[in-house]
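Hello,

Our lab assistant flagged a job as stuck in the queue for most of the afternoon. It eventually completed. Since we weren't sure the result was trustworthy after the delay, we are filing this so someone can double-check. Below is the sequence as submitted and the structure that was eventually returned. Let us know if re-running is recommended.
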Amino acid sequence: MDIFLIILAALFIIAGIVGSVVPALPGPPLGYIGLLLMQFTQAIHFSAWFLMGWGIAVVVVLLIDNFLPMWTTKRFGGSKWGVTGSVIGMIAGLFIPPVGIILGTLIGAVVGELIYSRKFHIAIKAGFGAFVGFMLTIGIKLAMSFVFLYYYVVEIISMI
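-- returned structure --
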């Protein structure tokens, strides 16, 4: 049973890394599930504080993931139209991997702002803000997911 849980944990941690880049998958929560699966084995045990701390960190990252792109878009002068456009562009960009997501976010915010204000310089700033927020959230989620991978590898090596 331990081998099954360890393999399943690896799959969840890998899915967490992929999900940190692909918006349709919740990256850090998947990686965290991988850690929890490891906890249910006979050979690997994390402390309750460790698991609670990372659980709280995952919730914080999820909140950041939902609000940071909107905040940076608005901070760079964008409106609700720019935020909405960036979300639509990101979803449309899913069909043109891997750069479609990034370019879709940027172009969507610009188009949304152009529809709203028809001022090109404002639209470009808002698009850049959406791009910055999106890239920051990807970086934060990837960092957390690779930390989960690190703990996985350390625990597997300690078993050998």
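-- support follow-up --
The delay was a queue issue, not a problem with the job. The result is valid. The chain has a mean pLDDT of 90. The chain has one domain: 2-159.
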